[in-house]
Amino acid sequence: MTELPLALRAPRSAAARLALRVTAAGAFGLALAASVVVAVTIGAADLAPGDVLRSIAAHLGLGATPLDPLRDGIVWQLRLPRVLTAAAVGAGLAIAGCVMQAITRNTLADPYLLGLSGGASLGAVSVLLLGASLLLPVAAFLGAALALVATLGIARVGGALTPTRTVLAGVAVSSLTGALTSLVIFWTATGDSYREILSWLLGSLAGARWPELAIAAVAVLVVGLPLVASGRTLDAFTFGDTAAAALGVDVARTRWLLLGATALLTGALVSVSGAIGFVGLVLPHLVRLVVGARHRMLLPLSALTGAIFLVWCDTLARSAFDPRELPVGVVTAILGAPVFALLLLRSGARR
Amino acid sequence: MTLEARGIRLAVRGRAVLDDVAVEARPGRILALLGPNGAGKSTLLRVLAGVQQPDAGAVSWSGIDWLALKRRERARVAALVEQDAPVDVPLTVRDAVGLGRIPHESGFGGGRDDDPAVERAMRDADVTGFASRQLSELSGGERQRVHLARALAQQPELLLLDEPTNHLDVRAQLALLALLRRLTAERGLTVVVALHDLGLALRHADDAVVLDAGRVAAAGPAASVLVPAVVDPVWRVRSRVGEHGIAFDLPEDAA
Asked: pLDDT tens digit string along A123-158?
């Protein structure tokens, strides 16, 4: 541990701690807003941050003079909903990872690594095959929930639910759901099926418009925000299940309720973006290093940094090889997999 | 207030862990829970804390049906200090102690920063001096005092501790038991503590219950329970009790 984070963690007076919390949340909130505006300007067409703000103001009826229709279309129809969807998905995945880590007492827990995202992809793709796209988020939730049950079930058979066993079980479930997802797409698709397979397996925000943003935003507001507010309950699990029970928590009920909520959140997000990995693993971990394990700091800051992280990953994904696009999951995996390896080494060394 | 358990039975996978166990813990007194490894001490503590349901039996707290209370209500009365709590938790001492306030807060929100009960619990357990340090940086004795402070932050009337002197050096063991004695005397706390060290129990506990394979082998004032007639068959040793405490040998036929 370095000196600076320690100083951040432990101011003495209650007022100083409150001030730190408000300042940190405000600073990251502003950083997110700035990231969104700047990310929208990046790419073909010459746009300045002022143009983005003007376009938004005009569409919100704030009396600004609109941009010319072409550039306004790029901002309002294409990039803004995509960037905002990235923010919502990033925030939601970080919240889901953080909650899963707390209730399983496993710093390796993450919706992607434990197979939830893969299960959600499979559910979503199956429903699209049947042509019932209204059921998309429901099917993705069912897929995520089944995958979670399978992962925990496999990990528990013949042993304790250790972090590495759980991740291995997640690998097995992810492999199977990934293969089945590919199979379903390949079976039904006519033309460019490889691109579609990739975007579900690795995650892509290329198709994100206002309807996709609506699904992701509703999921984050309706499921994610209550999870962020339940920090005190998650705190109770810090020293394990018995300790949580001794603090008055109904451990079994709380665990299934919160895991169900993370499956719901993951399902909704994956139904718009595919299975983007490592956001839920990396951001909570980095934030925890700086502010410690108390969830009232950890959860909101993980959500904000997760949003910023995915906004920039997606911007990189669509601009690095312009005019071709990378699936955003390629970028998050390149950045996240080394962190995962590091955490794996540390969790092995501890036992 | 008095905690009274009667006829506690609990089986795990067909094996009786607790078999018709009765315990009575009285206010202002320290009750030592003794017995060889696997005798059922930890399980009994979890039952008394209301964390684990027994298959049969009744527990009452000053006449109230203890197991029928809501979890939160129990958590405002009883605190449990477990054995071997995880240490790789990135929390400061103050934040760790603050977790003890959870039964008194709502599940939402984040807990207060300026809770006087936290400050008081830290003073009582003598951890205020390193309140801003990380849990992982502490010595075993310091960390055990933090867990005690966390339990005290629950403002309990009943304090249950599972081998709190484990991994502590002699001085830290004595300091911890002296602290328990002071809290018991000043606050009228009811304390039940599982111990391995019979010498510590003899010197610091008022009452003792000896468990042997899930059954009560003896119960009563510590000095009358910790005698060779009880100790020798339960632990399969030969003991001598003198003015310096209690000493043990392996019986000759086992050597």
From this structure: 999 888 887 777 888 899 999 999 999 999 999 886
Listed residue (B51, B11, B67, B32) closest to B214, CA to CA: B11
Query: Cβ contact (<8 Å) for A243 and B106?
Result: no
Distance from CA of A323 to the nearest CA of B (A): 44
Nearest by CB to A292, from B91, B99, B109: name it.
B91
Best probe of the B interface among A99, A241, A247, A296, by most B CBs < 10 A, is A247
Question: Which tokens belong to B213?
Answer: 């394979």
* Mean of all residue pLDDT scores within chain B: 92
Question: Angle at which helices A251-273 and A136-156 pack, to 10 degrees?
Answer: 130
Nearest CA of chain A to the CA of B135: how many Å? 11
Q: Which pLDDT does position A104 carry in this prediction? A: 87
Nearest to A245 among B51, B91, B92 (CB): B51
Among B46, B95, B110, beta carbon nearest to A242: B46
Whole-number Cα distances in Å, A95 to A298, A317, B174, B226: 9, 23, 45, 54
Distance from C-alpha of A123 to C-alpha of A126, rounded to nearest angstrom: 5
Assembly ipTM: 0.92
Model confidence pLDDT, tens digit, residues B133-185: 999 899 988 999 999 999 999 999 999 999 999 888 899 899 999 999 999 99
Read off the DSSP letter of residue B138.
S
Q: Residue A163 above 90 pLDDT?
A: no
Q: What share of chain B is helix, strand, coil (3-state, %, to 5)?
A: 40, 30, 35
The strand pairing partners of A63, in sequence order, are none
B60-93: b (≥16 Cβ within 10 Å) or e: bbeeeebbebebeebbbbbbbbbeebeeebbbbb
pTM value is 0.90
Compute the distance between CA of residue B27 and CA of residue B158 in angstroms, rounded to an integer.
8
**Residues whose CB is less than 8 angstroms from the CB of residue B82 and which lie 6 or more positions away in sequence, other chains included:** A239, A240, A242, A243, A246, B147, B162
Q: Do B80 and A295 touch (CB under 8 A)?
A: no
Task: Name the amino acid, one letter, at A37.
Answer: V
Question: What is the C-alpha separation between B223 and B71, in angstroms, rounded?
Answer: 35
Q: Identify which of B75, B111, B134 has the shortest CB distance to residue A1.
A: B134
Query: How is chain A split among helix, strand and coil, in percent rounded to 5?
Result: 75, 0, 25
Query: If you average pLDDT over residues B10-22, what whole number do you get?
Result: 93
Average confidence (pLDDT) over A279-300: 92
Residue B7 sits at φ, ψ, to 5 deg, of 60, 35
Beta carbons within 10 angstroms of residue A260's beta carbon: 15
Quick one: pLDDT band at residue A5, thresholds 50, 70, 90?
Answer: very low
Q: What is the DSSP letter of B128?
A: G
Q: What is the pLDDT of residue A7?
A: 42
pLDDT of residue A6 exceeding 70, the answer is no
Shortest Cα distance, chain A CAs vs residue B46, angstroms? 8
Sorted by where each starts, the structural domains of chain A and their CATH numbers stand as: 6-35+73-350 (1.10.3470.10)
* Chain-centre distance for alpha carbon A330: 15
Given an 8 Å threshold on Cβ–Cβ distance, is A246 in contact with B80? yes
Per-residue confidence (pLDDT) for residue A10, from 0 to 100: 47
- Residue B255's pLDDT is 52
